User: Fold this.
Amino acid sequence: MSVSRLFVESDLAAGSEAPLNEAQIHYLRHVMRRPDGAPLLVFNGRDGEWRAALESHGKKAAVARLGERTREQVAEPDVWLCFAPVKRARIDYIAEKATELGASALQPVVTHHTNVERVNVERLRANAIEAAEQTERLTVPEVRAPVDLARLLADWPKGRRLLMCDETGGGPPIAEMLSGLDASARVAPWAIVVGPEGGFAPAELAALRRIKDVTAVGLGPRILRADTAALAALACWQALVGDWRRPTPRLAADYRTSRAPV
Ligand code: SAM
Assistant:
């Protein structure tokens, strides 16, 4: 029996019970047809990952009854992905892939050329949770409501470095820039910003360049679509600054075999 892996909100400790929400109960009971005692893995983004067993509470409610911890919570790279909203299917794709690629926050940014009015934050968060469960992350990225670029820059957090993807040729190749970082820059909090279809307006490029710790970079000789550029830049960042520089933990191998039912 494969082991379903679920994100829960409650605190996690040996022997405790983590209430499951309606969608999780429906999925386990009616889609996966899991009986009581079925093995689960649960995580909450704070307390690591735990083995658990499905346990009914009356006709409708159910909990994950926790067993032992399988993985300690570990620090993860702090890299926001700030992107101009694109049409529905592609913004869902950004949420899913940026979660797999380890973004710590997803920040939709409204710019002069952004042609998408509404962003369904709840749907993006659901995509991010599902992707985090599947990719075996121990956290779920924070999914934020859209913000105007001017507001985002006005509130820019001190010390957070900004990687600005500039297709107008305003910066060195991303690999050259990220490979040359000093130790303090490598451990700093980061953000990547990508413009909309139609690119940043000139005034926006100027405003971005006024951020203290901003660096403009190029993503090669071709003009990438906004979603391609966002994910490509994030992958480069993980490879040259983030946790792709660490060996894939042995856990990935042992972990699968040890995911035996509880
Ligand atoms: N101005 C073009 C347009 O109207 O199609 C380019 C916009 S591009 C579709 C969307 C965003 O992706 C850009 O604002 C930039 O942030 C990023 N981007 C795309 N290609 C890039 C490249 N070769 N180098 C750096 N950034 C790029």
